[in-house]
Amino acid sequence: MISSAVLGATGYAGQELVRLLAQHPDVQLKAVTTQSYGSQNITDVFPHLKGAVSISCTENDIETAAECDVVFVALPHGVASHLLTKDILKKTRVIDLGADFRLKDVNTYEKWYQTKHGNKTLVADASYGLTEWNEQAIATSDLIANPGCYATASSLALLPLLSEGIIDPSSIIIDAKSGVSGAGRTATQAVHYNECNETIKAYGIATHRHTPEIEEQLNKYAPGVKILFTPHLVPMNRGILVTAYATLKQNISSAKALELFKTHYAQKPFVRLCKQDENPSQLPETRWVKGSNFCDIGCAVDERTNRIIVVAALDNLMKGAAGQAVQNMNVMFGLDQIRGLSHVPIFPA
C-alpha cells in the first residue's frame, strides 16, 4: 500500500483528494492537515466522507507528512515553496496542487503572483503534471507541479494542433469559464451567493495568473505562442469550459482536425472526443464531466474565417486539481492511470 498525506485537506481540492484517496485500492491515507479546524475528525468537517474515512486533522507539519510515501500539498500559492526542501524530497514524493513550481522562470512567477518564491533551487527539479503530455518525466520525478484547471483544459485543447504545426501560435484566443469552486473555499464578497448568482462576469482580464503557465506549456511545442486569455465566473458549483480560437496555417476540415486529436489521445484514458461527424451538435459540456477525471474535447473549422474552434470541458476539482493529482501519483508509482479514478460522471447534479 502507498501511504499518503494531504496538507490542506479542508479546502475544496483537499477534501476531494481525501475522498479519492480513501477509496483508492492501493493507498492508505495516513495524515490530513488543516489550518482552520484544529483536531476535528475530517468527517465532522465534511459529513459526506462518513463511512469512507475516519481520521483526525492535524496542523500542517511537512516533517511528519514526509514519513508517508507521497504528500499532496493542497495549500495556497506561496506556501509550498517555503515548506519543501531537498531533504524532504529525499524522504518522500510530493505533488503540489499550488502554483509554486509550475513556472520554470521564477521571475515570471514572482511578477504574476506578487510574492517571493521560497525555494528557487527546487524549481528545476519539478516536473509539470500534465499527464497526457509529460508521462515519462512524471514517472521518475519526486516533485510534481500539478497544473492549474484553466491551464489543463487549454493545453489539452491546443497542444495537438501546435505540435503538428496546424495553427499560427501568435493567433490564439482562449475564452474560459469556471464554476465558483475555482475561487477556493475562503469566503470573499465576489463569491457570496447574492454576488455571483444570476450573473456571469469576466475577471482577471490580461492579468490572470494562469496566462504565463499556459504560454510556457504551449511554447514547448511551438515557439512564439502569445495568448489572449479571458476567464469568466459563472454561477455553477464546479466545471471549466474553454473555447479556444486560432488561425489555421493550412487547409484542414473539421473531420481531419478531429482525426488529429484522435491520433494524439487514442491511448489517453481521460480524454474523450466528441464525435461531431456522428452528431454535429455534440460539443463538450461541463455537466457531462462533473465528478469525473475526464476532459471532453470537440472542434470545428470555420472555413469563412480560416479559424479552428476547440472546446474543452472538465471538472475543475477533478481533472483540474485532485483527480489529476491522483492520476500523477498513479504514474509515479507504476500503477495504471485509471486506478482509483474510474468514476463515471454524475448526472444530474
Please, could you describe this protein's structure?
The chain is α/β, with parallel strands linked by helices and 349 residues long. The chain has 2 domains: 2-125, NAD(P)-binding Rossmann-like Domain (Rossmann fold, 3-Layer(aba) Sandwich); 150-314, 2-Layer Sandwich (Dihydrodipicolinate Reductase, domain 2). It contains 12 helices and 14 strands. It has helices spanning 12-23, 42-45, 62-65, 80-83, 86-91, 106-113, 131-139, 149-163, 193-196, 210-219, 254-265, 318-332, and strands spanning 2-7, 27-33, 57-58, 70-73, 93-96, 127-128, 143-145, 173-178, 201-202, 228-233, 240-247, 271-273, 295-302, 307-314. The strands form 2 sheets. It has a 7-stranded parallel β-sheet. Strands 9-10-8-11-14-13-12 form a 7-stranded mixed β-sheet. β6, α7 and β7 form a beta-alpha-beta unit. The longest helix has 15 residues, at 149-163. The radius of gyration is 20 Å and the shape is globular. The two termini are 33 Å apart.
Helix-strand layout with pairing:
Blueprint: E1 2-7, H1 12-23, E2 27-33, H2 42-45, E3 57-58, H3 62-65, E4 70-73, H4 80-83, H5 86-91, E5 93-96, H6 106-113, E6 127-128, H7 131-139, E7 143-145, H8 149-163, E8 173-178, H9 193-196, E9 201-202, H10 210-219, E10 228-233, E11 240-247, H11 254-265, E12 271-273, E13 295-302, E14 307-314, H12 318-332
Helix pairs in contact: 1-12, 7-12, 8-10
Largest sheet: 7 strands, parallel
N-to-C series of helices and strands: EHEHEHEHHEHEHEHEHEHEEHEEEH
Alpha-beta content class: alpha/beta
CATH superfamily of the largest domain: Dihydrodipicolinate Reductase, domain 2
Strand content: 15-25%
Second-tier CATH architecture of the largest domain: 2-Layer Sandwich
Looking at the structure, the CATH topology of the largest domain is Dihydrodipicolinate Reductase, domain 2
| Discrete helix count | 12
